[in-house]
Amino acid sequence: MKILEDIKKFLKNIFNKKESFELLDKSKSIQEKSINTTKSDFMDSLRQNVRKRKKAKVETMVCVGDGLGIYNKIEY
Amino acid sequence: MILSELKSIIEKSQDKLSMFLNPELILSCDKLTNSDLTELITTFLDDSQKVELLKNEEIILNVLGLKNYNVSNIISSLNNVENKIEMLSKYDLENYNKIGIIRSFPLEQKIQTILNNTYNLKKADLAQIIASLSIDNLINFVNTNKEFLNNNNLSIANITRILDKKSSIELINKLNLISCSQLEKNAILATLNVEAKGKINKDILSDEEKTILDIKIRDVLNKSEDPYNDGLLEVDLNEDIEKFKGLDEYIIINPSSLSKEQLENFHRLCDICPNMLIRDDLELGYSTVEEYKNAELWINNVLGKITDEMTDIQKVAIIDNEIGKKISYSPEYGSEAFKGIDARALWKCISSGYGVCNGIAQIECYLLGKVGIDAKLVSGKHHSFVKLNNITLPREDGSSVTGNTIIDPTWNLTNNRYGSRPQNFCLSYEEIRQHDINSSGMDFECHKNDEELSDCTITLDDKSLRDVYQSIGIIGEDRSFKIKELIDKASQIDNLGLSQEEAVKKQLEALANYMPDFATCQNSTMDILKAISLSQENMSFNRCVVNRVYNKEDEGKKAIVYVFLDIPDCGEKFYIADAETGSFIDTPKEAFIQKYECYEKDRSQNKGVRPWEEVSEPVEEIEDLTQSSGKIGRNDGDGRVL
After folding, report:
1. Are A67 and B622 within 8 A, CB to CB?
2. Which residues on neighbouring strands pair with residue B572, listed in sequence order?
3. What is the pTM of this model?
4. Which of A60, A63, A73 sits opposite B423 (nearest CB)?
5. How far apart are alpha carbons B618 and B360 in whole angstroms?
6. Residues from A in contact with B at Cβ < 8 Å
7. Tell me: the pLDDT tens digits for B88-113?
8. Cβ(B341)–Cβ(B430) below 8 Å
9. Taking Cα atoms as reference points, which of B207, B445, B245, B407 lies closest to residue B324?
10. Cβ B415–A50 below 8 Å, yes or no?
11. Could you tell me if B189 and B169 are in contact, meaning their C-beta atoms sit under 8 angstroms apart?
């Protein structure tokens, strides 16, 4: 019985060689897809939950006479 | 149809008025002008027909298309004074058109109209009407209505100076009939019609009066000046100036380019005629003698800081810096409270401490001229500044370059007042044009003038600028401008971890401590609030407005800086820059609204809405960590893939 099973296993190995190669190939593709999906989900999860108050700009009048509201560089 | 044919048709018509009420035929006339139309009406219609026509304002103004001065001529041609008065009230005429009608009144009504000033006329308008009296009636009027003349600040010469040649000669022949002082007589003689001066019988005049009569009238025929100033006296500062005593009102003089001797005489003239006016090269306003004296004291003080050993660029830096510390930009500019004539007169600006661009640029040119530097006032789009010709600038490598450059004293006001690095000091045309473009990319073209400025090609580099400012003592060994103190202080406050409200209070206190005059240099303070005090890293508002308002009880509507904030978890806050206490006053909203108001222009620019009336929504944004320091994606050039 054991011999028969060994022969069956041997034949199956020969028979399944090609199939085994295809499966590996398929498996790699699935794995990549899975990684990409996980990365995308992770990025989206970051986007949707983090909110921050926007800094309001200081509003002043515009005056061409002294550049107020046009050119405002103050440095030391 | 030509005009002569039309006249013939109207003349033969049985119903002339209808021709004007239904003017198709009249308007079909070739090349019919408003003057022709006015002549047709005054010639062919009688009083009652003219009144009937004038009552139809729509036909007069819109169908016939007559202007106010045509209407004024038609009303003047009426014989009945009651009709004239009725029509005067019907039409909304300018004062000069009203004057023409009132001058045509019969004597009694004319005098009553003058004395009651029924139409709220100004001094010069009243003088025009009084001058239309016959000489005998005029003399009688001035002799019997002294109080009226005083109340309206009218001198007899204000009236007699506008008389024609014939009336002027008649007046001088009857001069002794006028009851007035010798100074008033002198004023009459000095300001007399220029043609009449040569025809007067001088035998009736005293020696002093003859001298006064010989004073020349300025030739202003080709100058676009106020028509009421056409009797101004020509002052020769090389002659005896004592004769101008009492003639202050008729003198406007420009002392900008006088020799040393002339200037000495001018200073004496200031004492002889303390109420004369002083004009400058810009001719956009007048300064008083008092303002001139005040300003010259300051000018002499500034010039006293300049020595012969200094280089030209050192002199320019001192003058630009001193102007910035003395003068503030007129904070009411553009509003209904702004008086343009006060903001451009050279000595008035210095004396008041306020001015606008061409006034301030003129001051800079005037002072630079005094130290021998070739400076010219130049204008861009709605803005004026200074071009320096043929000036030598030091360079970073120790060499120097000579050429033309640009300096903008008005755009340097904030820098000089608050002690920051001047940003508009000796720049090439190309560089200063970059300052015209705001953060949104809009080009205001303030310095755009290709024709006059394309030869401005040299710039003072940063190292050399600091060398110059260090050499004149404006910056010290560390080569930093004083504003560093405020910038550092603002940053310290920002890092204290205070609440937003507390942080704002501290920032405003720090600014007030740094610049005690902050409330009176309004525009510069707004600039600093925007650039430093309210723009710190940890500050966060729903809304932050820094602008100007006026106190409703202030007739002059002087501009006051305010800060309006909508602070998260705190609400709306108002701070008023108070000159009296030297602090920003935290003012409750209700009290602020009750006491202060926006200028009409500021409101209209914002569709009639005041800043604090707008609903400010809390502004939030989604922070995308994939684009921040916590990114998980790979960009080109990144060395790893997660």
Report:
1. no
2. B566
3. 0.77
4. A73
5. 42
6. 39, 42-43, 46-48, 50-76
7. 999 999 999 999 999 999 999 999 99
8. no
9. B407
10. no
11. no
